[in-house]
Amino acid sequence: MYVLLTYLRHSTPTRPPMLPTPDTSHVAYERVYEPAEDSFLFLDTLSSASETAFLRDRFFSAGPPTPTPAPAPAPAGDGDDRPSLPPSQSPPPPPPPPPFVVEIGPGSGVVIAFANAHAGTLFGTGTGTGTEAGARQQQQQQILTAAIDVNVHACRATGETVRKAAAAAATPIERDTIRARDGADEQRATTTTSSSSSGTWLGTAQGDLTAPLRDGCVDVLIFNPPYVPTAEIPMHSPPPPPLSPPDADTEASTSASTFETDSRLLALSWAGGRDGMETTERLLADLPRVLSARGCAYVLLCAQNRPEEVKRRVVAGEYWGGGGGGDDASRRSWRAETVGSSGKTAGWEKLQIIRIWREGEGRRSDGRTD
């Protein structure tokens, strides 16, 4: 798989040069999936002009304030000669809840670290004016991020990747000269803090796909699945702890068991079973449960996953029992389209990212969702 991915080329517009790829030099690749062309396709797609426009409109767009009717004129002879108040505008709508971005199976964490560190660019947040009101606006427009992986080593690696990416995106606060009560000039110490455009990292959870998530809590779901067609998917079961103090034989046995466990965990990151879709189909079936009304999912597929068929089945609602029955209006509300592609490389290894969402469901003017 790694050799094949090395030779891939993609035609998705490259991300802006000011958005660097997170550092993953600390990751033990013998235990965790190494960032490859599929990972980088996610970075390019999420930061493309079309997707940043979609995310900003989906989560933070607001229409103009609604004018309120002019007050009725006072009755004649009431003795009040004050002029009528001019028409005014209603107060701005309350801000929407912060979008919750979750990556399933982050591996090294390069994708979710990128989304967290550059949340302001991707979602159009962190654009306050420097005033107290602007600071409140930045706080209200924060992005929450998290990740879930069955591999405990991937969970640890992801946390460190996110931390390093956030630190790299941090900006120093300029010294502010303030006037003390005694008239002397003082300077606040220069500190380093996360840029206002970064997200709020909530952490990683070890778990199976979307199992740890509550219903309707995810606004943006990112999934780079195990998509390589294989005869079967490795079974994962953690080894039992030793019942007695280790000796030489026990240590050797434990070492072999650890190697086997790590090998299975690594295989789980790429082995997709029948048509490379067994794990992906499990996740797709749970999207109606975990996505919020305004939620969307970005899922990577290769050519042998039959992406056109996958999109058709999503629109028809077949993954969650909608095909051939159920609420027809609900089935029609689902949409799926390709938003990133590795280009016209021949063969099964051609990659694309599809976006799945509900049409016509997003933030209302009152900050809630339809």
Describe this structure in words.
The protein is of the alpha/beta class. The protein has a single domain, classed as 3-Layer(aba) Sandwich (Rossmann fold), CATH 3.40.50.150. The chain is built from 11 helices and 11 strands. It has helices at residues 2-6, 37-46, 49-60, 110-117, 119-123, 132-140, 152-169, 248-268, 278-290, 307-316, 328-332, and strands spanning 100-104, 144-149, 171-172, 177-179, 185-187, 192-193, 200-206, 218-223, 291-302, 334-341, 351-358. Strands 7-2-1-8-9-11-10 form a 7-stranded mixed beta sheet, sandwiched between helices. It has a two-stranded antiparallel sheet with strand order 3-6. 36% of the residues are buried. The model is unreliable at 1-13, 127-136, 173-195, 239-243, 250-254, 323-331 and 364-370 (pLDDT under 50).
Total domain units: 1
Poorly predicted tracts of residues: 1-13, 127-136, 173-195, 239-243, 250-254, 323-331, 364-370
Helix content: 25-40%
In one word, what is the shape? globular
In the CATH hierarchy, the architecture is 3-Layer(aba) Sandwich
Fraction of residues in β-strands: 15-25%
Specify the CATH homologous superfamily. Answer: Vaccinia Virus protein VP39
How far apart the termini lie comes to: 42 Å
Average pLDDT, all residues: 74
Rg (CA only): 25 Å
CATH topology: Rossmann fold
> Strand order within the widest sheet?
7-2-1-8-9-11-10
N-to-C SSE string, H for helix and E for strand: HHHEHHHEHEEEEEEHHEHHEE
- Alpha-beta classification: alpha/beta
Q: Can you identify the CATH class?
A: Alpha Beta
Total number of β-strand segments? 11
> How many H/I helical runs?
11
Largest sheet: 7 strands, mixed
Protein name: S-adenosylmethionine-dependent methyltransferase
Biased composition (Pro residues): 64-74, 84-100, 236-245
GO molecular function: nucleic acid binding; protein methyltransferase activity; S-adenosylmethionine-dependent methyltransferase activity
GO cellular component, one term: eRF1 methyltransferase complex
